[in-house]
Amino acid sequence: MVMVFILIVGIYVITIGLLELVIPARMLQLWIKISSSRLYYLYGILLIIAGFPLTQVPSSNPLSTPLFIVGLIVVFSGPFILIYPEKIKNIFFQGLEELGQKGSRFALIIDAIARIVTGILCIAAYLLS
User: Fold this and answer.
1) Less Cβ crowding at N or C end of the chain, within 10 Å?
2) Percentage of residues in the chain having pLDDT higher than 90
3) Could you tell me the residue range of the domain that residue 15 belongs to?
4) CA 29 to CA 120: how far, in whole Å?
């Protein structure tokens, strides 16, 4: 059951990454809208819930260690959003302002590549199980 969840997470993360590469301006606007919402703290809860199964990949899977590390990063980023949502929002908007349009696009491309690599890792772990 955990591996099916990891497959679904992989497909979802690759989809988001591809959308960030194909339509970066719209995806950046979506991230601005999400981070501006008063329900932004729910994103922190979602990170914790979605990241925890990544730490539960069976050790017999050769990709268990990389997925465990990714899971820890995702799970531990959730509480920061829950505890300091305004600071995270301010850092996000300040970063967008300092980077400008070209820098923001470059940061979004880096984020998209990281998402796609993570998604491929999840799908590969499912296939190897």
Assistant:
1) N
2) 59
3) 2-128
4) 25
What pLDDT is attached to residue 73? 94
Nearest to 111 by CA among 39, 13, 37: 13
* Predicted structure pTM score: 0.87
Q: Which two tokens stand for residue 122?
A: 């999840």
Amino acid in position 79: P
| Residue 15 DSSP SS3 | helix
Calculate what percentage of the chain has a pLDDT beyond 70: 100
Who's near 129: CB < 8 A, 6+ residues apart? 3, 58, 61
Give Cα 87 distance to the centre of its chain: 19
| DSSP-derived secondary structure letter, 113 | H
Q: What is the mean pLDDT of the chain?
A: 91
Q: What token pair was written down for 23?
A: 């339509």
Query: What are the φ and ψ backbone dihedral angles of 61, each rounded to 5 degrees?
Result: -80, 130
Average pLDDT over residues 69-93: 90
> Which is nearest to 75 in space by CA: 99, 50, 109?
50
